[in-house]
Amino acid sequence: QDNSFEQFIINYCNEKLQQIFIELTLKEEQEEYIREGIEWTHIEYFNNAIICDLIENNQTGILAMLDEECLRPGTVTDDTFLEKLNQVCATHQHFESRMSKCSRFLNDTSLPHSCFRIQHYAGKVMYQVEGFVDKNNDLLYRDLSQAMWKANHSLIKALFPEGNPAKINLKRPPTAGSQFKASVATLMKNLQTKNPNYIRCIKPNDKKAAHIFNDALVCHQVRYLGLLENVRVRRAGYAFRQAYEPCLERYKMLCKQTWPHWRGPARAGVEVLFNELEIPEEEFSFGRSKIFIRNPRTLFKLEDLRKQRLEDLATLIAKIYRGWKCRTRFLLMKKSQIVIASWYRRYA
Protein backbone atom coordinates (compact mmCIF):
# COMPACT_ATOMS: atom_id res chain seq x y z
CA GLN A 1 0.00 0.00 0.00
CA ASP A 2 2.89 2.38 0.76
CA ASN A 3 5.26 2.58 -2.19
CA SER A 4 8.64 4.18 -1.68
CA PHE A 5 11.96 4.45 -3.53
CA GLU A 6 12.44 0.66 -3.74
CA GLN A 7 9.11 0.09 -5.49
CA PHE A 8 9.78 3.08 -7.73
CA ILE A 9 12.99 1.62 -9.19
CA ILE A 10 11.37 -1.83 -9.48
CA ASN A 11 8.54 -0.32 -11.51
CA TYR A 12 11.11 1.57 -13.58
CA CYS A 13 12.74 -1.76 -14.46
CA ASN A 14 9.32 -3.18 -15.36
CA GLU A 15 8.71 -0.21 -17.65
CA LYS A 16 12.00 -0.86 -19.46
CA LEU A 17 11.16 -4.55 -19.86
CA GLN A 18 7.74 -3.62 -21.21
CA GLN A 19 9.43 -1.20 -23.61
CA ILE A 20 11.72 -3.88 -25.06
CA PHE A 21 8.71 -6.22 -25.23
CA ILE A 22 6.89 -3.63 -27.34
CA GLU A 23 9.97 -3.04 -29.49
CA LEU A 24 10.46 -6.72 -30.28
CA THR A 25 6.89 -7.97 -30.56
CA LEU A 26 4.81 -5.07 -31.87
CA LYS A 27 6.97 -2.33 -33.35
CA GLU A 28 9.71 -4.52 -34.85
CA GLU A 29 7.27 -7.06 -36.28
CA GLN A 30 5.18 -4.44 -38.08
CA GLU A 31 8.31 -2.71 -39.36
CA GLU A 32 9.58 -6.04 -40.70
CA TYR A 33 6.46 -6.45 -42.83
CA ILE A 34 7.05 -3.00 -44.33
CA ARG A 35 10.75 -3.72 -44.95
CA GLU A 36 9.90 -6.99 -46.67
CA GLY A 37 7.27 -5.37 -48.89
CA ILE A 38 4.35 -7.28 -47.35
CA GLU A 39 0.95 -5.58 -47.64
CA TRP A 40 0.15 -4.46 -44.11
CA THR A 41 -2.29 -2.17 -42.27
CA HIS A 42 -0.63 -0.60 -39.24
CA ILE A 43 -2.13 -1.57 -35.86
CA GLU A 44 -1.98 1.13 -33.20
CA TYR A 45 -0.59 0.30 -29.74
CA PHE A 46 0.50 2.18 -26.64
CA ASN A 47 4.24 2.83 -26.54
CA ASN A 48 5.44 3.38 -22.99
CA ALA A 49 8.60 5.20 -24.11
CA ILE A 50 7.02 8.41 -22.79
CA ILE A 51 6.87 6.91 -19.26
CA CYS A 52 10.48 5.69 -19.45
CA ASP A 53 11.52 9.18 -20.53
CA LEU A 54 9.66 10.68 -17.56
CA ILE A 55 11.78 8.55 -15.22
CA GLU A 56 15.19 8.37 -16.90
CA ASN A 57 15.57 11.57 -18.95
CA ASN A 58 19.02 13.03 -18.23
CA GLN A 59 17.70 16.58 -17.75
CA THR A 60 14.05 16.40 -16.70
CA GLY A 61 13.72 12.80 -15.55
CA ILE A 62 12.70 11.93 -11.99
CA LEU A 63 15.96 10.06 -11.33
CA ALA A 64 18.03 12.99 -12.65
CA MET A 65 16.20 15.46 -10.40
CA LEU A 66 16.58 13.12 -7.43
CA ASP A 67 20.33 12.93 -8.03
CA GLU A 68 20.47 16.70 -8.35
CA GLU A 69 18.77 17.10 -5.00
CA CYS A 70 21.16 14.62 -3.39
CA LEU A 71 24.25 16.40 -4.74
CA ARG A 72 23.36 20.08 -4.46
CA PRO A 73 24.48 22.16 -1.44
CA GLY A 74 22.03 23.62 1.02
CA THR A 75 19.02 22.20 2.78
CA VAL A 76 17.76 19.12 0.96
CA THR A 77 14.64 17.24 2.04
CA ASP A 78 12.04 14.99 0.48
CA ASP A 79 9.72 18.00 0.31
CA THR A 80 12.21 20.02 -1.74
CA PHE A 81 12.51 17.04 -4.09
CA LEU A 82 8.73 16.85 -4.50
CA GLU A 83 8.60 20.60 -5.05
CA LYS A 84 11.14 20.26 -7.84
CA LEU A 85 9.09 17.45 -9.41
CA ASN A 86 5.98 19.63 -9.23
CA GLN A 87 7.75 22.39 -11.15
CA VAL A 88 9.37 20.29 -13.88
CA CYS A 89 6.80 17.51 -14.41
CA ALA A 90 3.60 19.47 -13.80
CA THR A 91 2.43 19.29 -17.40
CA HIS A 92 3.47 15.70 -18.06
CA GLN A 93 0.41 13.60 -18.86
CA HIS A 94 1.62 10.62 -16.80
CA PHE A 95 2.62 12.58 -13.65
CA GLU A 96 0.11 13.57 -10.98
CA SER A 97 0.56 15.58 -7.79
CA ARG A 98 -1.68 17.70 -5.56
CA MET A 99 1.10 20.28 -5.15
CA SER A 100 1.90 20.62 -8.85
CA LYS A 101 0.97 23.69 -10.83
CA CYS A 102 -1.50 21.57 -12.77
CA SER A 103 -4.84 22.51 -11.19
CA ARG A 104 -6.65 19.32 -12.24
CA PHE A 105 -5.31 17.45 -9.16
CA LEU A 106 -5.88 20.14 -6.51
CA ASN A 107 -9.15 18.57 -5.38
CA ASP A 108 -8.07 14.94 -5.74
CA THR A 109 -8.50 13.73 -2.15
CA SER A 110 -7.18 10.26 -3.05
CA LEU A 111 -3.73 11.83 -3.58
CA PRO A 112 -2.05 13.08 -0.34
CA HIS A 113 0.07 16.22 -0.45
CA SER A 114 3.30 14.31 0.32
CA CYS A 115 2.88 11.89 -2.58
CA PHE A 116 3.08 11.83 -6.33
CA ARG A 117 1.47 9.41 -8.73
CA ILE A 118 2.73 7.96 -12.01
CA GLN A 119 0.47 6.42 -14.61
CA HIS A 120 2.51 3.33 -15.51
CA TYR A 121 1.66 1.04 -18.41
CA ALA A 122 0.03 -1.36 -15.92
CA GLY A 123 -1.95 1.29 -14.06
CA LYS A 124 -1.50 4.21 -11.68
CA VAL A 125 0.91 3.86 -8.74
CA MET A 126 1.17 6.35 -5.88
CA TYR A 127 4.57 6.89 -4.23
CA GLN A 128 5.27 8.23 -0.76
CA VAL A 129 8.04 10.79 -1.24
CA GLU A 130 9.32 10.29 2.32
CA GLY A 131 12.73 8.57 2.30
CA PHE A 132 13.51 9.08 -1.39
CA VAL A 133 16.53 11.33 -0.80
CA ASP A 134 18.06 9.22 1.99
CA LYS A 135 17.57 5.94 0.13
CA ASN A 136 19.09 7.37 -3.03
CA ASN A 137 22.27 8.46 -1.25
CA ASP A 138 25.11 5.96 -0.93
CA LEU A 139 25.54 5.87 2.83
CA LEU A 140 28.62 3.64 2.71
CA TYR A 141 31.19 6.32 3.52
CA ARG A 142 34.70 6.11 2.13
CA ASP A 143 36.44 5.91 5.53
CA LEU A 144 34.18 2.99 6.53
CA SER A 145 35.14 1.10 3.35
CA GLN A 146 38.83 1.72 4.03
CA ALA A 147 38.47 0.47 7.61
CA MET A 148 36.73 -2.71 6.44
CA TRP A 149 39.39 -3.29 3.79
CA LYS A 150 42.09 -3.26 6.49
CA ALA A 151 40.41 -6.13 8.35
CA ASN A 152 42.35 -9.36 8.76
CA HIS A 153 39.37 -11.48 7.72
CA SER A 154 39.70 -12.26 4.00
CA LEU A 155 35.92 -12.31 3.36
CA ILE A 156 35.34 -8.86 4.88
CA LYS A 157 38.29 -7.51 2.92
CA ALA A 158 36.88 -8.94 -0.31
CA LEU A 159 33.47 -7.34 0.31
CA PHE A 160 34.93 -3.82 0.34
CA PRO A 161 37.32 -3.59 -2.65
CA GLU A 162 36.67 0.15 -2.93
CA GLY A 163 38.52 0.60 0.38
CA ASN A 164 41.83 -0.34 -1.23
CA PRO A 165 44.12 2.76 -0.92
CA ALA A 166 45.45 2.04 -4.40
CA LYS A 167 41.93 2.51 -5.80
CA ILE A 168 40.94 5.65 -3.90
CA ASN A 169 38.54 7.75 -5.96
CA LEU A 170 37.96 11.29 -4.75
CA LYS A 171 34.74 11.57 -6.69
CA ARG A 172 31.50 11.32 -4.79
CA PRO A 173 30.09 7.76 -4.88
CA PRO A 174 27.29 7.27 -7.42
CA THR A 175 23.76 7.36 -6.08
CA ALA A 176 21.60 4.25 -5.79
CA GLY A 177 19.33 5.52 -8.56
CA SER A 178 22.17 6.11 -11.03
CA GLN A 179 23.66 2.70 -10.24
CA PHE A 180 20.30 1.03 -10.82
CA LYS A 181 19.78 3.01 -14.03
CA ALA A 182 23.20 1.84 -15.31
CA SER A 183 22.34 -1.77 -14.41
CA VAL A 184 19.03 -1.56 -16.28
CA ALA A 185 20.80 -0.07 -19.31
CA THR A 186 23.25 -3.00 -19.29
CA LEU A 187 20.36 -5.46 -19.02
CA MET A 188 18.55 -3.84 -21.96
CA LYS A 189 21.73 -3.94 -24.04
CA ASN A 190 22.16 -7.66 -23.34
CA LEU A 191 18.52 -8.44 -24.14
CA GLN A 192 18.67 -6.59 -27.45
CA THR A 193 21.52 -8.83 -28.61
CA LYS A 194 19.45 -11.95 -27.90
CA ASN A 195 16.24 -13.45 -29.25
CA PRO A 196 14.10 -13.45 -26.11
CA ASN A 197 10.84 -15.36 -25.68
CA TYR A 198 8.14 -13.97 -23.43
CA ILE A 199 5.82 -15.81 -21.06
CA ARG A 200 3.05 -13.62 -19.73
CA CYS A 201 1.63 -14.86 -16.43
CA ILE A 202 -1.94 -13.86 -15.54
CA LYS A 203 -2.87 -13.77 -11.84
CA PRO A 204 -6.45 -15.12 -11.47
CA ASN A 205 -6.90 -13.68 -7.94
CA ASP A 206 -5.04 -11.80 -5.20
CA LYS A 207 -5.56 -14.51 -2.58
CA LYS A 208 -3.25 -17.06 -4.24
CA ALA A 209 -6.13 -19.54 -3.92
CA ALA A 210 -7.34 -22.23 -6.30
CA HIS A 211 -10.69 -22.20 -8.15
CA ILE A 212 -11.12 -18.40 -7.83
CA PHE A 213 -11.23 -16.34 -11.03
CA ASN A 214 -11.50 -12.57 -10.65
CA ASP A 215 -12.79 -11.27 -13.99
CA ALA A 216 -11.95 -7.63 -13.28
CA LEU A 217 -8.38 -8.44 -12.18
CA VAL A 218 -7.72 -10.62 -15.23
CA CYS A 219 -9.17 -8.05 -17.64
CA HIS A 220 -7.01 -5.36 -16.04
CA GLN A 221 -3.84 -7.45 -16.57
CA VAL A 222 -4.74 -8.40 -20.14
CA ARG A 223 -5.40 -4.76 -21.01
CA TYR A 224 -2.28 -3.26 -19.45
CA LEU A 225 0.15 -6.00 -20.45
CA GLY A 226 -0.53 -5.15 -24.09
CA LEU A 227 -1.86 -8.62 -24.84
CA LEU A 228 -4.80 -7.34 -26.90
CA GLU A 229 -2.52 -5.42 -29.28
CA ASN A 230 -0.14 -8.36 -29.44
CA VAL A 231 -2.94 -10.78 -30.35
CA ARG A 232 -4.25 -8.39 -33.01
CA VAL A 233 -0.80 -8.11 -34.59
CA ARG A 234 -0.32 -11.88 -34.47
CA ARG A 235 -3.73 -12.66 -35.93
CA ALA A 236 -3.40 -10.10 -38.71
CA GLY A 237 0.23 -11.01 -39.38
CA TYR A 238 2.18 -14.16 -40.05
CA ALA A 239 2.97 -16.83 -37.48
CA PHE A 240 6.21 -17.97 -39.12
CA ARG A 241 8.89 -16.38 -41.27
CA GLN A 242 12.18 -17.75 -42.55
CA ALA A 243 14.86 -16.81 -45.06
CA TYR A 244 14.52 -18.51 -48.44
CA GLU A 245 17.79 -20.49 -48.27
CA PRO A 246 17.14 -22.42 -45.04
CA CYS A 247 13.47 -22.89 -45.96
CA LEU A 248 14.41 -24.46 -49.31
CA GLU A 249 17.11 -26.57 -47.68
CA ARG A 250 14.64 -27.96 -45.15
CA TYR A 251 11.68 -28.73 -47.43
CA LYS A 252 13.24 -29.29 -50.87
CA MET A 253 12.80 -33.06 -50.50
CA LEU A 254 9.04 -32.58 -50.85
CA CYS A 255 9.26 -31.65 -54.54
CA LYS A 256 10.84 -33.63 -57.39
CA GLN A 257 11.95 -30.42 -59.13
CA THR A 258 13.93 -29.19 -56.11
CA TRP A 259 15.27 -32.56 -54.92
CA PRO A 260 18.11 -33.36 -54.51
CA HIS A 261 19.61 -30.12 -55.88
CA TRP A 262 18.00 -26.88 -57.04
CA ARG A 263 19.84 -24.91 -59.69
CA GLY A 264 18.75 -21.32 -59.35
CA PRO A 265 17.73 -18.60 -56.85
CA ALA A 266 16.40 -19.83 -53.52
CA ARG A 267 13.21 -17.75 -53.81
CA ALA A 268 12.35 -19.35 -57.16
CA GLY A 269 12.91 -22.78 -55.61
CA VAL A 270 10.54 -21.98 -52.74
CA GLU A 271 7.91 -20.75 -55.21
CA VAL A 272 8.19 -24.00 -57.20
CA LEU A 273 7.98 -25.99 -53.97
CA PHE A 274 4.84 -24.25 -52.67
CA ASN A 275 3.13 -24.49 -56.07
CA GLU A 276 3.91 -28.21 -56.22
CA LEU A 277 2.43 -28.74 -52.75
CA GLU A 278 -0.70 -26.75 -53.74
CA ILE A 279 -0.64 -24.56 -50.63
CA PRO A 280 -3.37 -21.86 -50.84
CA GLU A 281 -2.01 -18.46 -51.82
CA GLU A 282 -3.64 -16.72 -48.85
CA GLU A 283 -1.57 -18.86 -46.48
CA PHE A 284 1.80 -17.36 -47.43
CA SER A 285 3.49 -14.25 -48.84
CA PHE A 286 6.86 -13.74 -50.46
CA GLY A 287 8.97 -10.97 -48.93
CA ARG A 288 12.20 -9.52 -50.26
CA SER A 289 14.34 -11.99 -48.33
CA LYS A 290 11.90 -14.23 -46.41
CA ILE A 291 8.89 -16.46 -46.87
CA PHE A 292 5.98 -15.58 -44.53
CA ILE A 293 3.49 -18.28 -43.50
CA ARG A 294 0.25 -17.01 -41.99
CA ASN A 295 -1.23 -20.01 -40.18
CA PRO A 296 0.67 -22.42 -37.90
CA ARG A 297 -1.23 -25.41 -39.31
CA THR A 298 0.35 -24.75 -42.72
CA LEU A 299 3.75 -25.07 -41.07
CA PHE A 300 2.60 -28.20 -39.24
CA LYS A 301 1.48 -29.65 -42.57
CA LEU A 302 4.93 -28.99 -44.06
CA GLU A 303 6.59 -30.63 -41.07
CA ASP A 304 4.30 -33.68 -41.32
CA LEU A 305 5.04 -34.04 -45.04
CA ARG A 306 8.75 -33.71 -44.33
CA LYS A 307 8.57 -36.32 -41.59
CA GLN A 308 6.75 -38.74 -43.91
CA ARG A 309 9.24 -38.04 -46.69
CA LEU A 310 12.16 -38.73 -44.36
CA GLU A 311 10.58 -42.06 -43.41
CA ASP A 312 10.12 -42.89 -47.11
CA LEU A 313 13.74 -41.96 -47.84
CA ALA A 314 14.92 -44.04 -44.91
CA THR A 315 12.89 -46.99 -46.22
CA LEU A 316 14.34 -46.48 -49.71
CA ILE A 317 17.91 -46.35 -48.37
CA ALA A 318 17.32 -49.48 -46.28
CA LYS A 319 15.78 -51.29 -49.29
CA ILE A 320 18.70 -50.42 -51.57
CA TYR A 321 21.21 -51.43 -48.89
CA ARG A 322 19.50 -54.77 -48.26
CA GLY A 323 19.35 -55.43 -52.03
CA TRP A 324 23.05 -54.59 -52.42
CA LYS A 325 23.97 -56.78 -49.46
CA CYS A 326 21.92 -59.75 -50.73
CA ARG A 327 23.29 -59.37 -54.28
CA THR A 328 26.86 -59.17 -52.98
CA ARG A 329 26.29 -62.31 -50.91
CA PHE A 330 24.68 -64.07 -53.91
CA LEU A 331 27.59 -63.17 -56.22
CA LEU A 332 30.07 -64.40 -53.63
CA MET A 333 28.17 -67.70 -53.23
CA LYS A 334 27.94 -68.05 -57.04
CA LYS A 335 31.67 -67.46 -57.38
CA SER A 336 32.36 -69.95 -54.57
CA GLN A 337 30.06 -72.53 -56.20
CA ILE A 338 31.91 -72.20 -59.53
CA VAL A 339 35.27 -72.67 -57.78
CA ILE A 340 34.01 -75.72 -55.88
CA ALA A 341 32.44 -77.22 -59.03
CA SER A 342 35.62 -76.73 -61.07
CA TRP A 343 37.78 -78.39 -58.42
CA TYR A 344 35.27 -81.23 -58.13
CA ARG A 345 35.25 -81.86 -61.91
CA ARG A 346 39.04 -81.82 -61.95
CA TYR A 347 39.10 -84.36 -59.15
CA ALA A 348 36.49 -86.58 -60.83
Structural notes for this entry:
- The chain is mostly helical and 348 residues long.
- The chain folds into two domains: 154 residues, Methane Monooxygenase Hydroxylase, Chain G, domain 1 (Up-down Bundle); 108 residues, Alpha-Beta Plaits, CATH 3.30.70.
- Helix content is 54%, strand content 7%.
- The strands form two sheets. The protein has a three-stranded antiparallel β-sheet with strand order 1-2-3, with helices on one face.
- α1 runs parallel beside α8 and α3 packs across α4.
- The longest helix is centred in the last third of the chain and has 52 residues.
- It starts with a helix and ends with a helix.
- The model has no long low-confidence stretch (mean pLDDT 84).
